[in-house]
Amino acid sequence: MTGRVRLTGAGRTSRRLRAPRRWWAELAGSAALLSVVVVVALWLHNGGLRGFAAPGGAATSIGRVTGLVASDLLLLQVLLMARIPWVERSYGQDTLARRHRLVGFCSFWLMIAHVVLITVGYGQAGGMGVVAEIWDLVATYPGMLLAAAGTVLLVLVVVLSIRLARRRQRYETWHLIHLYAYLGVGLALPHQLWTGADFIASTPARLYWWGLYAVALGAVVVFRVGLPLYRSAYHRLRVHAVVPEAPGVVSVYLSGHRLDRLPARAGQFFLWRFLDGPGWTRAHPYTLSSAPSGDLLRITVKDLGDGSSRAATLRPGTRVLVEGPYGALTADRRSGARRVLLIAAGVGITTMRALIDEFAGSGVKVTLLYRVRRPEDAVFRTELDEAARRGQVRVIYLDGGRARPGSWLPDRFAQVSDLAALRWLVPDVAQHDAFLCGPPPWMAGVRATLREAGVGPDHIHAEEFAW
């Protein structure tokens, strides 16, 4: 279907969500650190230092505590990406993904240290070589064969999460492989409960570890499985229309049941599964490109290959499964300044287009800097010009080749610095809250220029889709 589709009620959010309180993020971070302290305290309480004098005791004792902390961090990893709504809104998906990756690498190396130290310690105590001790542990200790398989899976996930390997994968491939981490955690559980003395040494230890596993499992089941299935079944989303926006860019309009009850905000994204044939199981992250209107949702997709190319071929009536909303780049990020600067590049305009809807009528003065290679690449040009005519936004198109290597501005500013150009475009830039969306290297350049112009870090808001 071609032609423009009217979003009745666009420009206002049907269901206003409560902004996350700042102390939520601080509380979650403090709880994560406290969990590590609790694990070490339980290890000490259960005699963790008493075995140092025995043959191999030092290696075994240190191996135990590294294994305990590795297990704790592994479960924290699961919680970080369990899509818990108040945690998502407090941190933002990109921040959670970065912390998930950092905690994951720490957990991995502690797990490797655990395996090596336990093997060495047991070998010294029993007078066996390293190879013989590894075989004895895996073959004779309850649950160790499963733990070995879980370790292999976790190593595979970590190796494929290294930046160089990640760049060579499609998002869909990486996401599928990453699911094996859950299996790795599950396979490790039996050996911890059957042979892990620190797991079963005391009632507090048993309560803590069973409780942490139950919380992690419950969060995954409820927020990664149950809630998406419920929302998909309740809202019954279907493709309403597909509209071309620019070369290689289409908007997909979606209708459904009681969309006013979907807790979505302008600036957030969903994971979408279109039931249009083979490959429907792969979820695709797309941001809302207009504020939720109560009767329709809109996403805008650029053909970048793989699943995104299928968006243009979707037929009205196609059923849709949805996960989300996710992300924290919403109007609530605004620190209170009465001026807002939106800066977008390429398909990053989708987020800014939705935020324009949200800011409309709020009394906030909005300026949009929109970077594109060619004028015809500008998405939503008609809508943006109409919003400018109504006084909702001041729009400045930044089209053309790059001004210089490393610059985020077009070539018409080649004779001046990025800072001078920004101050010419937005003279009072330091008095704005700035929202950024575009390729990460480009956003890094914009952020640096904003800081030079006097915009404080608390007034610069950006979020990447990180994986």
Automatic annotation (TrEMBL):
Tell me the Gene3D superfamilies matching this sequence: Nucleotide-binding domain of ferredoxin-NADP reductase (FNR) module, Translation factors
Topology within the bilayer: Multi-pass membrane protein
Major location, coarse class? membrane
Alphabetically sorted, this entry's keywords are: 2Fe-2S, FAD, Flavoprotein, Iron, Iron-sulfur, Membrane, Metal-binding, Oxidoreductase, Transmembrane, Transmembrane helix
Q: What does UniProt give as GO cellular component?
A: membrane
Q: Which cofactor does it need?
A: FAD
Q: Which domain of life is it from?
A: Bacteria
Coiled-coil positions are none
PROSITE patterns recorded: FAD_FR (PS51384)
Q: Tell me if Ion transport is a UniProt keyword of this record.
A: no
Protein name in UniProt? Oxidoreductase
Q: Which organism is it from?
A: Winogradskya consettensis
